[in-house]
Specification:
Strand content: 5-15%
Strand order of the largest sheet: 1-9-8-5-4-2-3
CATH class of the largest domain: Alpha Beta
Radius of gyration: 21 Å
Bound molecules: pyridoxal-5'-phosphate
Shape: globular
Largest sheet: 7 strands, mixed
CATH topology of the largest domain: Aspartate Aminotransferase, domain 2
Number of domains: 2
Helix content: 25-40%
Number of helices: 12
Structural class: alpha/beta
CATH architecture of the largest domain: 3-Layer(aba) Sandwich
Length: 372
């Protein structure tokens, strides 16, 4: 019995191979491998797509977060509120600039940062947080306007970590349009994935944008050979920009195909588990299709026997990891993050899952839930 890939990048390559080959060949011909014309074209298209004045591409979603924090002047001694249920990079970026993450709890339905829990971070003894990083987990935009207000009330800023959510909208507006800065990732399995690492930072403020451009290029100023700040080798390769431009042409069609897969899963599993629910006005991009189950490991191994891989995003709250164990947690704790991390599992999800593969996944999941 064949195994269905969890995310089938080879199927996408078969579908888009020609246009991607041509895009790569153009770069090989002009030879501008660093900051070539494709990088600038991609930045213009992405900024327009998410309705932000500036898009500054960079080498990864983690660099994007680190650059955002550096541009905002976050430094040792500062504290930043982050959700306890996310990929580790959200908190890692805070540590990379020498600041301290404070872990807050998430909403039990969307798994995004719970504004009430985040508010508790201001009650902790010690320095007040300078900002909040919200994550659009699994492709569902966080409650951006509420979190912006929370941040404003405390004279703090909001960054939106949209690594998983390019394409998703709330009330017709991209989740990445929220926050003083928003970021995304082009890690290959993301909704818009490169053939390697990549990321982008979005903002509306011209001064922040010019700081971000400087930071991604060793802190270089407009004047030649002048470096007033410390930066990174943080640029997106032109070859990756060319791949992303080719994939962007089919992004909307892929978005609709993801939605169709998610709708089919939800119809089939309702009654057995609670299907993921989108908040009113939200169109998730379905970076992952994640449900909660009892007896996760048994269910996952039954599905593996049927050739269906599943993943656990994420098996424990971030602050359980050694590097974050000593960081503060809000006074009410992060019980939702803890419970979710013990129960969540994600089914294969990508736009090239044909109906027969969907049927195999659905049937294996139904059988695995019911048992022998
Ligand atoms: C929520 C979140 N933030 C940040 C990142 C980091 O992105 P990258 O892997 O491109 O560094 C990821 C990537 O998996 C992510 O899922």
């Amino acid at each position: 019995m064949s195994t269905i890939p969890f995310i089938d990048l080879a199927a996408q390559q078969r579908a888009l191979g020609d246009r991607i080959q041509k895009a790569i060949s153009r770069v090989l011909e002009h030879g501008s491998y660093i900051m070539g014309p494709e990088v600038l074209e991609l930045e213009d298209l992405l900024a327009a797509r998410v309705q932000r004045r500036h898009c500054v591409t960079c080498a990864s979603g983690t660099d994007a977060l680190q650059m955002a924090l550096m541009a905002l002047g976050v430094a040792p001694g500062d504290r930043v509120v982050v959700p306890d249920f996310t990929f580790v990079a959200t908190a890692e970026a805070v540590r990379l600039v020498g600041a301290e993450p404070i872990f807050a709890d998430v909403d039990p339905v969307t798994y995004n940062l719970d504004p009430e829990s985040a508010e508790l971070a201001w009650e902790l003894p010690g320095p007040s947080p300078v900002g909040v990083i919200a994550v659009d987990l699994f492709g569902h935009p966080a409650r951006g306007s509420e979190l912006e207000l929370l941040a404003q009330r405390h004279d703090a800023w909001l960054i939106v970590d949209g690594a998983q959510s390019l394409g998703a909208t709330r009330d017709g507006r991209s989740g990445i349009a929220r926050g003083v800065i928003a970021t995304t990732s082009f890690y290959p399995s993301k909704p818009l994935g490169a053939y390697g690492d990549g990321g982008a930072v979005f903002c509306d403020d011209d001064r922040l944008a010019s700081a971000l451009c400087s930071i991604r290029n060793h802190g270089a100023d407009a004047a030649p050979s002048s470096h007033e700040r410390v930066g990174l080798t943080g640029r997106l390769d032109t070859l990756q920009a060319a791949v992303l431009l080719a994939k962007l042409e089919v992004f909307d069609a892929e978005f609709r195909d993801r939605q169709a897969v998610a709708a089919r899963y939800s119809e089939a599993v309702a009654g057995l588990v609670t299907p993921p629910r989108a908040e009113a006005g939200v169109e998730p991009v379905w970076a992952q299709y994640t449900v909660e189950v009892e007896g996760r490991e048994v269910i996952r191994s039954r599905m593996a026997e049927a050739g269906i891989p599943t993943c656990v995003f994420y098996p424990h709250p971030v602050h359980f990891n050694g590097a974050y164990r000593a960081c503060p947690v809000v006074s009410d704790g992060t019980q939702v993050a803890l419970l979710a991390s013990s129960r969540v599992m994600s089914l294969p999800m990508h736009p090239y899952l044909d109906v027969s593969a969907q049927d195999r996944i659905i049937s294996a999941f139904q059988h695995a839930l019911v048992g022998p």
